[in-house]
Specification:
This protein is mainly β. It is built from 1 helix and 8 strands. A hairpin with a 4-residue loop joins strand 5 and strand 6. Keywords: Signal.
Length: 147
């Protein structure tokens, strides 16, 4: 036999008596009965199968201050640019740059900082558009989501 094999057998022989030792204290792993509470099995109030959406998440959701000149927001699939026109008027331009065969529509929701809806549009791939809105509050929120 080779020397490493002999050392392996020797280490197993040394460890074997401690592995089969039944003289361990009986109460070392026991739990006192006074610490065990009553177990009650209850049905959940609402089954997870009854819930359509556990957590809904948008592709893009950002709240920013109204720009002094312009700001561009977006993802690889959808972009929007907000330009200050003066007199608390802003132009929102948007582009859906998904490939024509993407087969999904993206919804842009544009809200004021207080939650008031300012603009809503559902876009198909390879489309663009724009609109003008009046400033409300100090911030706005842009949300891109799949329709």
């Amino acid at each position: 036999m080779r020397f490493p094999a002999v050392l392996g057998l020797l280490s197993v022989a040394v460890a074997l008596p401690s592995a089969v030792n039944n003289d361990a204290p009986v109460d070392s792993l026991s739990i006192a009965e006074r610490e065990v509470g009553e177990v009650i099995n209850r049905a959940p109030e609402q089954s997870a199968q009854d819930i359509n959406i556990l957590f809904e998440r948008a592709f893009f959701d950002q709240t920013v201050d109204w720009p002094s000149s312009s700001v561009t927001l977006g993802t690889i699939s959808f972009q929007t640019q907000v330009n200050n026109l003066g007199s608390d008027r802003f132009k929102i331009s948007w582009w859906n740059s998904d490939p024509a065969n993407a087969g999904r529509k993206i919804k842009l929701t544009f809200n004021a900082g207080d939650g008031t809806r300012l603009y809503d549009v559902v876009s198909s791939p390879q489309t663009r558009g724009n609109t003008e809105v009046t400033k409300r509050g100090t911030q706005f929120r842009a949300i891109f989501d799949e329709e």
